């Protein structure tokens, strides 16, 4: 279309060429803006897909952590407590890695949504931008709250495990003294 507009400018008499040249420039500017918006929307789509993929991975890791904590027994053996602590640390690192990915892509998505929204004067578009950003923020907050909840459960279970470990060690020491 731009090439055709340029050719029309060349074929017109000089007094009409100015009008066609202005139209071609306007069309060119509009085309560049459209391409820019399409690129931004494409980037938003990519970031949104990554965000929801990380959210899904994070939810899976949180479920894995929750199952681990539910199945956690009160071990009296020091090695079992260490193994449980190591396993918790491993799962917790996976939770944190996926949470960082979700938060990063969530922020990128919000940033792009706001950028797209800032280019519109339509009041309805402003509401849509606000709602979209709020939904993403709620998902991010829910992930963080679930992680904090599981951290609290772990803290309580860890205290119980440590107490049982100490009690088992004292019992073992008492048996050693009795056998002496």
Q: What does the model show?
A:
The chain has one domain (49-179): Methane Monooxygenase Hydroxylase, Chain G, domain 1, CATH 1.20.58. The chain has helices at 2-11, 14-71, 78-118, 123-179. It has 4 helices and no strands. With 180 residues, it is mainly α.
The helix-and-strand class reads mainly alpha
Annotation field: number of helices: 4
Secondary-structure element string: HHHH
Gyration radius, rounded: 30 Å
- Give the biggest beta sheet: none
Assembly type of the chains comes to: single chain
Determine the mean pLDDT. Answer: 88
Number of domains: 1
* Overall shape: rod-shaped
Strand fraction band? under 5%
Q: Please give the share of residues in helix.
A: over 70%
CATH names the topology as: Methane Monooxygenase Hydroxylase, Chain G, domain 1
List how many beta strands DSSP finds: 0
The CATH class, by name, is: Mainly Alpha
Q: What is the distance, rounded to the nearest whole angstrom, between the alpha carbons of the first and last residues? A: 99 Å
Entry summary:
With 180 residues, this protein is mostly helical. It has four helices and no strands. It has a single domain (49-179), classed as Methane Monooxygenase Hydroxylase, Chain G, domain 1.
Short key terms for the protein model shown above:
single chain, Methane Monooxygenase Hydroxylase, Chain G, domain 1, rod-shaped, mainly alpha, 180 residues, 4 helices
């Amino acid at each position: 279309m731009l090439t055709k507009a340029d050719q029309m400018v060349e074929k017109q008499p000089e007094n009409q060429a100015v009008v066609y040249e202005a139209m071609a420039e306007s069309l060119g500017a509009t085309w560049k803006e459209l391409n820019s918006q399409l690129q931004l929307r494409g980037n938003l789509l990519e970031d949104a897909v990554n965000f929801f993929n990380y959210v899904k991975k994070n939810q899976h890791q949180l479920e894995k952590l929750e199952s681990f904590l539910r199945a956690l027994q009160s071990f009296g053996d020091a090695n079992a407590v260490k193994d449980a602590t190591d396993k918790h640390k491993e799962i917790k690192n996976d939770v944190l890695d996926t949470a960082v990915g979700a938060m990063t892509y969530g922020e990128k998505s919000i940033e792009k949504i706001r950028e797209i929204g800032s280019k519109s004067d339509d009041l309805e578009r402003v509401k849509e931008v606000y709602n979209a950003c709020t939904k993403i923020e709620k998902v991010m907050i829910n992930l963080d709250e679930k992680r904090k909840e599981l951290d609290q459960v772990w803290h309580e279970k860890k205290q119980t495990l440590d107490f049982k470990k100490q009690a088992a060690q004292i019992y073992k020491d008492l048996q050693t003294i009795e056998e002496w």
